[in-house]
């Protein structure tokens, strides 16, 4: 039995009966947790207790007391064996009963506290039945008890009070009101110790003085004695015969402290545990104070929760670190180092063997682009040999097998950033001719100043350019599978260099307006033709490198426009600086500006040719674009008789073209939503820009019209470039075809907005004040117009050929370049339709014949 409920736990609560009479705590007044009362099986002991309100705080019946039980007619006196303060039960001595079990000990009887009456003593009283009879000895018991005020005894470490009997049974006649009899507490038996044996230390030996204090000089000026070192003590112990300078009176316990003080003792463990707990509390307080000082918009409750989380994470990290440190002995560390070195050598050998692997060319081997880009170990795959092979899985043209794994876009980390920069430069070259022609409109207009073709020249030029581009682009799209893109790209850039050089020559002499008009239209159509072939080749190759490369091409198309228009603004400012707004020049300023445009564009095209030549020689290009660069060769090397007969008869080429045309139509039907969206973007753009926007004049008389026109080109191109650049951030990407179509159709609202600006209308139209009379507001509208143009068109061009984001191309990697070229064709178709639509828009606001006025 436990001495008391000093430690309140389930085990002590089950064994709450105690033989101790002292009251040292009040744990027996605490409530029992519900979990302690649950019995998992019938063999689990049952915790017996009463309600907290029914428990007795100050127990006056304790072990060793003599009592009787209420209702006992024999008045038998019992001695208290133990008490249970949780259940208010009193156990009696010499009342054990047999439990019927051979293993279980006999149990003593227990009774409730209320049935017990303390024995007061033996008194001479008259018999109850004969009040007049002689006196006789009778046992008297207390029926009511009072106590003194309890107090804490610091010497005995317990609560102390006195108990008194106020009323007794039988009643004492001399015990009147206010009188009471003190009932002494039972005397506790003294603890008996066993007799000392031969191995026990006697009291005399313990009382002996075996240590003398070291001698100190009583003078306060004397130095303090030096504490001997441990080596001196050890030399004296092992070599007592040597006369060593050792003071025997020195406290030798200083040397034996590491041996006598057990670091694993309970006291030392408790001390270390307390120090650890103190450090944890200090760390938690430090983190909490730091979090409360830097709330950063959080509430105090949230800051405390974050501090608790960080504290737990740091404590767990420290525990893991200590646990790992116990493993880190020198032998284990060396073993781990040897294993790591062996593993790295093995991986290096495997990678070297795979890198140097060379296989003979066989019909059942294929270089899988998706597999090789994702894993260098899976470069070759065999044709499936089972009977369930689907014919659609085999590409007879290239003898390649489509992997069972769904192909995706090339991983971005395998494509070097220099490839994206080259695609950016090629994108600049694709649209350089268009931007130079558009931004050189003031120069062309100055040469046609005395001609009636001046007012309609912009619409004629844009229509001719886009129409030629559309027609040639259709042919380039149809024949893209039968040409080598690198060769076509170099040829197109070379033609563009020549045509731009011819334009620069026109700035040195002044032909007649008719001849100049025809030459510019012819040169624009020729540049559109070369640009169409260049565009299909660049887009087809960029689509194989993934959406990032396509986005680079689109950004390059806008970047060149920004650069060209920026140079135009600088040239225009230099031409009109210091001259009045009404100054009408002789065209020399426009001529010098155009000369710079054409010369710089020629030099840039030369640079783009060098950059493309470098990219073609890179290993990543030869690997990714191998299907396009080697297709013609593979078709020419076919060895079957049927193929040879087809080539000789000429039917094979016609059949191949028909197949490619049908394939293009099939892909166009799959991506019809993307294609309509990208086409309508440029229908709206070319309907007003630049034929209509160049007719808008500044409302501020201090701004020169030439400078205003140049700035308006720059604003549009900057917005277009930023819109395309936004597509490089994943948060701004939209892959849904229906959403892109909705955004494209919403751009129609820009047309009436531009018609509300300060447009120079025809002479037959009544002039009205413009609704939008602010030049700054016009520039903001133009900037939004360019931003939406670049953003939506780039998203459409990126989504259409994407294997990952276009669900219509899932599992069809052979359609990627076709989808890209078809989308590019629709883009140019939108340019053409927008250019034609510009005549209708012009007729609507000027009320004239747009083809001659």
Concise structural overview:
The protein has 26 helices and 15 strands. It is an alpha+beta fold and 853 residues long. Among the domains are: 10-183, no CATH class; 417-639 and 657-846, Growth Hormone, Chain: A, CATH 1.20.1250.20.
Labels describing this entry:
nucleobase transmembrane transporter activity, 853 residues, transmembrane helix, 8% strand, two-stranded antiparallel sheet, Growth Hormone, Chain: A, transmembrane, membrane, 9-stranded antiparallel sheet
CATH architecture of the domain at 417-639 and 657-846: Up-down Bundle
What share of the residues does DSSP label as strand, in percent?
Answer: 5-15%
State the helicity in percent bands.
Answer: 40-55%
CATH level 1 class label of the domain at 417-639 and 657-846: Mainly Alpha
What structural class do you assign from the helix and strand content? alpha+beta
**Unreliable segments (pLDDT under 50, ≥5 consecutive)?**
368-405, 632-652
What is the number of strand segments? 15
Q: What is the distance, rounded to the nearest whole angstrom, between the alpha carbons of the first and last residues?
A: 119 Å
What is the CATH topology of the domain at 417-639 and 657-846?
Growth Hormone, Chain: A
CATH superfamily of the domain at 417-639 and 657-846: MFS general substrate transporter like domains
Report on this structure.
This is Nucleoside transporter. The chain crosses the membrane at residues 421-445, 457-480, 492-509, 515-546, 558-576, 596-616, 672-693, 705-727, 776-797, 818-841. Residues 632-646 have a biased composition (Basic and acidic residues). Belongs to the SLC29A/ENT transporter (TC 2.A.57) family. It comes from Gymnopilus dilepis. This protein is an alpha+beta fold and 853 residues long. Among the domains are: 10-183, no CATH class; 417-639 and 657-846, MFS general substrate transporter like domains (Growth Hormone, Chain: A, Up-down Bundle), CATH 1.20.1250. Helix content is 51%, strand content 8%. The protein has 26 helices and 15 strands. The strands form four sheets. Strands 1, 2, 3, 4, 5, 6, 7, 10 and 11 form a nine-stranded antiparallel β-sheet that branches. The chain has a two-stranded antiparallel ribbon with strand order 8-9. A two-stranded antiparallel sheet has the order 12-13. It is elongated, with a radius of gyration of 53 Å. The N and C termini lie far apart (119 Å). Mean pLDDT is 79; it is low at 368-405 and 632-652.
């Amino acid at each position: 039995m436990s001495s008391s409920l000093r430690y309140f736990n389930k085990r002590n609560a089950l064994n709450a009966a105690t033989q101790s009479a002292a009251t040292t705590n009040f744990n027996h007044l605490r409530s029992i947790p519900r979990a302690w009362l649950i019995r998992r099986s019938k063999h689990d002991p049952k915790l017996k207790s009463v309600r907290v309100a029914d428990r007795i705080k100050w127990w006056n019946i304790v072990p060793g007391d003599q009592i009787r039980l209420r209702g006992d007619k024999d008045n038998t006196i019992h001695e208290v064996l133990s008490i249970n303060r949780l259940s208010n039960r009193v156990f009696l001595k010499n009342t054990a009963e047999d439990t019927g079990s051979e293993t279980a000990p006999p149990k003593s009887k227990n009774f409730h506290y209320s049935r017990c009456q303390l024995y007061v003593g033996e008194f001479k009283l008259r018999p109850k039945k004969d009040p007049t009879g002689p006196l006789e000895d009778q046992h008297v018991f207390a029926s009511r008890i009072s106590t003194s005020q309890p107090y804490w005894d610091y010497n005995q470490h317990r609560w102390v009070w006195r108990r008194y009997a106020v009323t007794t049974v039988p009643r004492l006649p001399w015990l009147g009101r206010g009188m009471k009899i003190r009932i002494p507490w039972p005397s506790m038996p003294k603890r008996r110790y066993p007799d000392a044996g031969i191995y026990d230390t006697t009291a005399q030996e313990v009382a002996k003085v075996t240590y003398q204090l070291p001698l100190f000089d009583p003078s306060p000026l004397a130095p303090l004695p030096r504490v001997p070192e441990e080596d001196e003590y050890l030399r004296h112990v092992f070599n007592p015969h040597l006369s060593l300078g050792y003071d025997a009176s020195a406290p030798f316990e200083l040397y034996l402290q590491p041996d006598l003080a057990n670091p694993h003792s309970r006291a030392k463990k408790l001390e270390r545990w307390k120090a650890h707990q103190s450090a944890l509390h200090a760390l938690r307080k430090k983190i909490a104070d730091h979090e409360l000082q830097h709330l950063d918009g959080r509430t105090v409750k949230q800051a405390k929760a974050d501090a608790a989380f960080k504290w737990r994470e740091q404590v767990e990290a420290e525990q893991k670190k200590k646990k790992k440190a116990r493993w880190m002995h020198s032998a284990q560390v060396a073993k781990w180092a040897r294993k790591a070195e062996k593993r790295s050598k093995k991986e290096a050998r495997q990678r070297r063997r795979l890198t140097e692997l060379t296989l003979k060319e066989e019909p059942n081997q294929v270089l899988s682009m998706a597999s090789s880009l994702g894993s260098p170990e899976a470069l070759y795959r065999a044709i499936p040999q089972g009977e369930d092979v689907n014919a659609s899985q085999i590409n007879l043209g290239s003898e390649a097998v489509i992997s069972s794994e769904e192909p995706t876009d090339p991983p971005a980390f395998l494509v070097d950033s220099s490839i994206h920069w080259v695609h950016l430069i090629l994108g600049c070259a694709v649209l350089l001719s268009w931007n130079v022609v558009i931004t050189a409109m003031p120069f062309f207009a100055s040469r046609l100043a005395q001609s009636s073709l001046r007012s309609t020249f912009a619409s004629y030029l844009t229509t001719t350019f886009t129409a030629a581009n559309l027609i040639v682009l259709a042919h380039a799209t149809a024949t893209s599978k039968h040409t080598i893109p690198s060769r076509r790209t170099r040829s197109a850039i070379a033609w563009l260099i020549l045509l731009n050089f011819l334009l620069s020559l026109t700035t040195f002499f002044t032909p007649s307006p008719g001849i100049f008009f025809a030459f510019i239209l012819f040169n624009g159509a020729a540049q559109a033709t070369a640009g169409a072939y260049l565009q299909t080749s660049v887009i087809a190759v960029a689509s194989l490198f993934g959406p990032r490369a396509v986005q680079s091409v689109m950004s390059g198309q806008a970047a060149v426009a920004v650069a060209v228009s920026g140079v135009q603004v600088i040239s225009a400012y230099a031409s009109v600086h210091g001259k009045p707004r009404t100054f009408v020049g002789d065209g020399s300023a426009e001529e010098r500006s155009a000369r710079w445009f054409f010369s710089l564009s020629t030099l840039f095209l030369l640079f783009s040719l060098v950059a493309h030549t470098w990219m073609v020689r890179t290993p990543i290009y030869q690997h990714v674009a191998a299907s396009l660069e080697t297709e013609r060769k593979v078709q020419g090397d076919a060895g079957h008789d049927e193929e040879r007969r087809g080539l000789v008869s000429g039917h094979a080429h016609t059949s191949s073209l028909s197949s490619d045309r049908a394939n293009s139509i099939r892909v166009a039907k799959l991506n019809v939503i993307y294609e309509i969206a990208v086409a309508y973007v440029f229908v709206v753009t070319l309907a007003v820009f630049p034929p209509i926007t160049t007719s808008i004049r500044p409302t501020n008389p201090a701004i020169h019209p030439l400078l205003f026109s140049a700035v308006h080109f720059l604003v549009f191109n900057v917005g277009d470039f930023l819109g395309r650049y936004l597509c490089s951030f994943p948060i701004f990407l939209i892959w849904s075809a229906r959403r892109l179509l909705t955004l494209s159709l919403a751009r129609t609202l820009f047309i009436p907005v531009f018609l509300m600006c300060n447009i120079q209308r025809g002479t037959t139209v009544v002039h009205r004040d413009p609704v939008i009379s602010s030049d700054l507001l016009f520039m903001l509208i133009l900037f939004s117009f360019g931003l939406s143009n670049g953003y939506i068109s780039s998203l459409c061009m990126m989504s259409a050929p994407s294997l990952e984001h276009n669900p219509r191309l899932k599992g069809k990697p052979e359609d990627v370049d076709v989808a890209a070229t078809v989308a590019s064709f629709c883009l140019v178709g939108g340019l053409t339709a927008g250019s034609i639509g510009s005549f209708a828009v012009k007729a609507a606001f000027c009320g004239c014949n747009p083809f001659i006025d």
